[in-house]
Amino acid sequence: RHFATPTRQVPMFAKSGTKGEEKEVILELKMLADVGLIGFPNVGKSTLLSKISAARPKIANYHFTTLSPNLGVVRYYEKSFVAADIPGLIEGAAQGAGLGHDFLRHIERNAVLLFMVPVITEDIKKEYEILLSELEKYNPQLLTKARILAISKCDIADPEIDLDKLAKDLSEELGISVITFSSASGTGLTELKDMLWEELNKEQNQVIEISHLPIE
């Protein structure tokens, strides 16, 4: 444009160029969300997202129904936050088992991690610790993020189980907040959103980028 004039509106010549650079780069897309839903396949992550947001992820009764992360905007009174349904992890995901590497990277840009374990699980603490171990093997910095354990599918819990006591005992044992809920009946969903909002508004729990440590 600096060479254009009323009679030469488009330059008809060019200056000599300079030597450029050539390099190979790897671009990696990471999902950015306030809350990441983490758990084994079929623990109710997609169902929860569909209940607390307008997102409509695929829901079916078989493993790896979710093949890519789904985002949903969760309304919280006059405000909102974004939740991401991270596809199901399995033991060994950090070493590439299942679709682990494809999904674990998205967890790096979530502010709060919501671990989901069904109430019918034989050992809730063990399943939570397996998930935590996979995150640590993939990137130890993930353990610096805020964590909440949500016990799902409580509508099918054994009537003899005291859910409040179960949550309290696990919270004391694990040192994190624990909540029970049911997406099917809606029980505990309001309390779950309250807990997530409170955790998100702690200054140290803002979404920040953390460095990725390559697997050797």
Write down how many β-strands occur, each being a DSSP E stretch of 2 or more residues: 6
Order of helices and strands: EHEEHEHEHEH
* Helicity range: 25-40%
Distance between the termini: 51 Å
Topology:
Layout: E1 33-38, H1 45-52, E2 70-76, E3 79-85, H2 100-107, E4 110-118, H3 124-138, E5 146-152, H4 163-174, E6 177-180, H5 189-200
Parallel strand pairs: 1-3, 1-4, 4-5, 5-6
Antiparallel strand pairs: 2-3
Textual characterization of the structure:
The structure is a single chain. This protein is α/β, with parallel strands linked by helices and 216 residues long. It is built from five helices and six strands; from the N terminus they run βαββαβαβαβα. The chain has helices spanning 45-52, 100-107, 124-138, 163-174, 189-200, and strands spanning 33-38, 70-76, 79-85, 110-118, 146-152, 177-180. The chain has a six-stranded mixed beta sheet with strand order 2-3-1-4-5-6, sandwiched between helices.
Question: How would you summarize what this structure contains?
Answer:
With 216 residues, the chain is of the alpha/beta class.
Notable characteristics:
disordered C terminus; 216 residues; alpha/beta; elongated; six-stranded mixed beta sheet
